[in-house]
Amino acid sequence: xxxxxxxxxxxxxxxxxxxxxxxxxxxxxxxxxxxxxxxxxxxxxxxxxxxxxxxxxxxxxxxxxxxxxxxxxxxxxxxxxxxxxxxxxxxxxxxxxxxxxxxxxxxxxxxxxxxxxxxxxxxxxxxxxxxxxxxxxxxxxxxxxxxxxxxxxxxxxxxxxxxxxxxxxxxxxxxxxxxxxxxxxxxxxxxxxxxxxxxxxxxxxxxxxxxxxxxxxxxxxxxxxxxxxxxxxxxxxxxxxxxxxxxxxxxxxxxxxxxxxxxxxxxxxxxxxxxxxxxxxxxxxxxxxxxxxxxxxxxxxxxxxxxxxxxxxxxxxxxxxxxxxxxxxxxxxxxxxxxxxxxxxxxxxxxxxxxxxxxxxxxxxxxxxxxxxxxxxxxxxxxxxxxxxxxxxxxxxxxxxxxxxxxxxxxxxxxxxxxxxxxxxxxxxxxxxxxxxxxxxxxxxxxxxxxxxxxxxxxxxxxxxxxxxxxxxxxxxxxxxxxxxxxxxxxxxxxxxxxxxxxxxxxxxxxxxxxxx
Length: 517
Known about the structure:
Elements: E1 2-9, H1 32-42, E2 49-55, H2 64-71, H3 79-86, E3 91-93, H4 103-109, E4 117-118, E5 122-123, E6 135-140, E7 143-151, H5 155-158, E8 168-169, H6 172-186, E9 189-195, H7 217-223, E10 229-231, E11 238-243, E12 246-251, E13 257-266, E14 269-279, H8 287-304, E15 307-313, H9 321-327, H10 330-343, E16 347-350, E17 363-365, H11 366-372, E18 379-385, H12 386-397, E19 400-402, E20 408-410, E21 426-428, E22 431-435, E23 444-449, E24 452-453, E25 459-465, H13 466-469, E26 483-487, H14 491-501, E27 504-507, E28 513-516
Parallel strand pairs: 1-2, 2-3, 3-4, 7-9, 9-10, 10-12, 15-27, 16-25, 22-28
Antiparallel strand pairs: 1-13, 5-8, 6-7, 11-12, 13-14, 15-17, 16-21, 18-25, 18-26, 19-20, 22-23, 23-24
């Protein structure tokens, strides 16, 4: 009997070091350097054991270190593939955020790879130099192991078109249904590495999100026979178990855990399987890789502490995230102000992305900006009707729920199975009121623009990030077909440009949102 151990990382998002960058001395129980040290332990030779190591995507964007590499020293992008080489990965898969800085940067990041990058459902990926094919076959321990690589097909709904030139995305389900039977003709074992998650409860099969095609993992399990192991990601969930008789892992984000799937193989067939997550919190960072990257980290920390502007007026520090979402906040008002300045629109919308957003101190540093606005979002301006605006606001109003004793909480749909606080927006340019005692879909009880009620057929322009502008977050009233102009600079650049034009910015407490509870 031969034992196969499939170890995987996913959604590292550029967090090499155990820090969230909130301060120079912050320390966290995660980071890829911890995961790499754990990988080395798992990769130690063991009799009759075969090791397969997979990275499941979303390496290139997310952390301030990733932002520094992409925007300040893009010629050093090959560091990413150098690190995966040093981690002895057998396979890499593309994640949706790996496209955020465009194809030239993605190609540069993969330039020195010693491992194949797989993209079975992205037509044109090989021609663009970002993939080595749909699958690879590994020969280890007398076994042939096929790995099929898939990426969430929803990428074009979020990503700027010029970041996807020459690429077409097919559904993960249809692609797997085509390839898995063929791969069983070529290999003993078939592993699917999917940068996507689950759209339904893994046990009951009950839908947990709209069937948009963003996550197709439950369909893969239910409708694609022959998958011997399924590696997932994208949702940042921590999952390990056997579902539909298939071992499954999803190891969270930022190197919090390493996924491990164990297969016992006899006569070239799987006879037993198990899945688990190994947390990295107690594993010291890999000393060799730490030494290789520590100078870069020091430069990043210095870069982050550079001031970019100054504030006066109302405080832009975020101390109570729920209150900021309920009543508006000077920080959110400022972000909307920057959006409206750049987009020349009637209305602006932005989100408090997560509860770790700290906002700005009186002297604003790049660290504060990147911690508060961590995504390289560009902006779009759309022309919408008053009726469509009302629909978007009703979606926002569904973010809240009332407990039996009248306390306001975030609705479960925005926290389970994945935390999606970024799918609630705060608006500028309108005056509006939610009544949480009303049923969902009927909570918007006041909507005015320039002191006049908004008519259903009224034409308005709205500026927002491109994720929302393409309907991301279950906002189908926003669509790419409605875009009338796009702002190519990302929001971090736009905020910095605003501070250059206004070295001292006055914080303003907004009063345009009212919530009755």
